[in-house]
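User: Here's a structure from my thesis project, written as structure tokens. My advisor, Dr. K., wants to see whether a designed sequence matches the one we expressed. Can you design one independently, without my sequence as a hint?
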């Protein structure tokens, strides 16, 4: 995950506080650089926005999409040990912020390549999780690994395969990753893979 991640933390004692502050409000106009003022815009909008007093640009701030994969090789899943904050040294599925100009599945494939250097065949959408508190939606695709050779990028200390009973559940970086892994292995055991899990985490 490239940019600072505002992901929800896992269920450890720090879970009560956000992993990172919720996104910092816009301070300056993207168009002209003047300090914005937070107020109701004049167009009937019912939310306060950062409005530029000089050029009237209204700055809309909306949730960000985080996309990733569940890369499987047989019964084992590929996890990445994070080399970046937050959650340095914790394990995650390869995932990160979607970029402009790419689709969800393209973003998921790109993050898998960047973080793990893993060759995959993309599968189906598996989970869609709204993390309301931090203004993010996390989406994970199933994926089939084409090789057990990985070339982790600079954001990853180590990329390795885990059987379900080897997964370091207490060392998973983010709740959305832990929930996705849990649901995936549950479905796999029950032979109900193929459905999409959509839910909210606060
Ligand atoms: Zn302006």
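Assistant: Designed independently from the structure alone:
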């Amino acid at each position: 995950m490239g940019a600072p991640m505002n992901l929800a933390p896992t269920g450890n004692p720090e879970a009560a506080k956000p992993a990172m502050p919720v996104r910092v409000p816009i301070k300056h106009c993207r168009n002209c650089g003047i300090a914005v003022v937070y107020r109701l815009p004049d167009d009937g909008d019912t939310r306060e926005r950062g409005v530029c007093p000089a050029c009237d640009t209204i700055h809309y701030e909306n949730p960000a999409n985080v996309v990733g994969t569940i890369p499987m090789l047989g019964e084992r899943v590929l996890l990445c040990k994070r080399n970046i904050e937050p959650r340095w040294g914790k394990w995650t599925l390869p995932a990160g912020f979607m970029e402009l100009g790419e689709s969800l599945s393209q973003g998921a494939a790109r993050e898998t390549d960047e973080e793990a250097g893993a060759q995959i065949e993309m599968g189906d959408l598996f989970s869609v999780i709204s993390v309301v508190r931090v203004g993010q939606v996390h989406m994970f695709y199933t994926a089939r690994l084409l090789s057990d050779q990985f070339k982790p990028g600079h954001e990853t200390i180590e990329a390795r395969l885990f059987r379900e009973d080897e997964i370091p559940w207490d060392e998973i970086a983010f709740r959305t990753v832990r929930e996705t892994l849990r649901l995936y292995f549950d479905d796999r055991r029950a032979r109900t893979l193929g459905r999409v899990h959509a839910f909210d985490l606060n």
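When you compare it with your expressed construct, this may help: The first helix runs from residue 104 to 116.
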